[in-house]
Amino acid sequence: MPTPAVAPGQILTAALQHYNAGRFAQAEEASHALLALVPQHPAAHQLLAMLALNDQALAQARQHILLSLAPRPQHVPSLLIAGRIALAESDPATALRYFEAAARHEPDLSQAHFHLGTSLSALGRPAEAVAALRRAVALAPQAMEAVLNLGSALRELGDLAAARDAFAEAARLRPEVAETWFNLGLVLQDMKDGTAAVDAFARALSLRSDYADAALNLGVALQEVQRMEEALQAFRTALRLQPQWFGRIAHALTAGGSGRLWLHVGDLEAALRG
Hints:
This protein is an all-alpha fold. It has helices at residues 8-20, 24-37, 42-54, 58-69, 76-88, 92-105, 110-122, 126-139, 144-157, 160-173, 178-190, 194-207, 212-224, 228-241, 246-255, 265-273. Helix 2 packs antiparallel against helix 3, helix 7 packs antiparallel against helix 8 and helix 8 (126-139) runs antiparallel to helix 9 (144-157). The longest helix is centred in the N-terminal third of the chain and has 14 residues, at 24-37. The chain starts with 7 loop residues before the first helix and ends with a helix.
């Protein structure tokens, strides 16, 4: 008996199952099989665009997502993918147009406003980025990445108290993520709250022992609150993680008014490497 033909819907379902399970080669194979059966199938091109974006094959990803959008220009998931591809190609102006369209067609989708805010930040429009990210957070209060990006946009805008609150909320939502504590530490430093900054940077470093930026900033914060022995230890950690940072650390020690004086660079290097 002849083998019964497989329906396009079954192939698409299998392709999506492969993709969601991380079986990307099988997802790509199924997508091409679907295109062989139904040329220009928009969902197949959408999935192939995602696979290419994951591999950073950006020209290929762009080609697929344009073919996905051609018969359905208001398809929000494809608009979001197109915007992400444009961002990956360092083209935030094009990305902004896609995300604006997605937010217009689906105004209650937090992800659309999140990506809109990201594009506006990349374009140097922090006030508009804050508005978009506030909308994203209002729609999905538990979305830590949106809260974190809101904090960054607020800090860029100069609203330090609101930025501090956003970063603190991100840390509350995902206390195991070192970057949330690091960003909180940065804004606390901006606000001249050295003791709280020390705690935030120390938390970041405790979560990621290889976090060189956290170690460096911890050293600066400790120095600012006159805890020099601990500051030197933090700088030693930063130097161990990034040996090429000796000049940066030496500058921090010199500029920070540590109360210590090294007459020779070799003495300072010995203190840091010791």
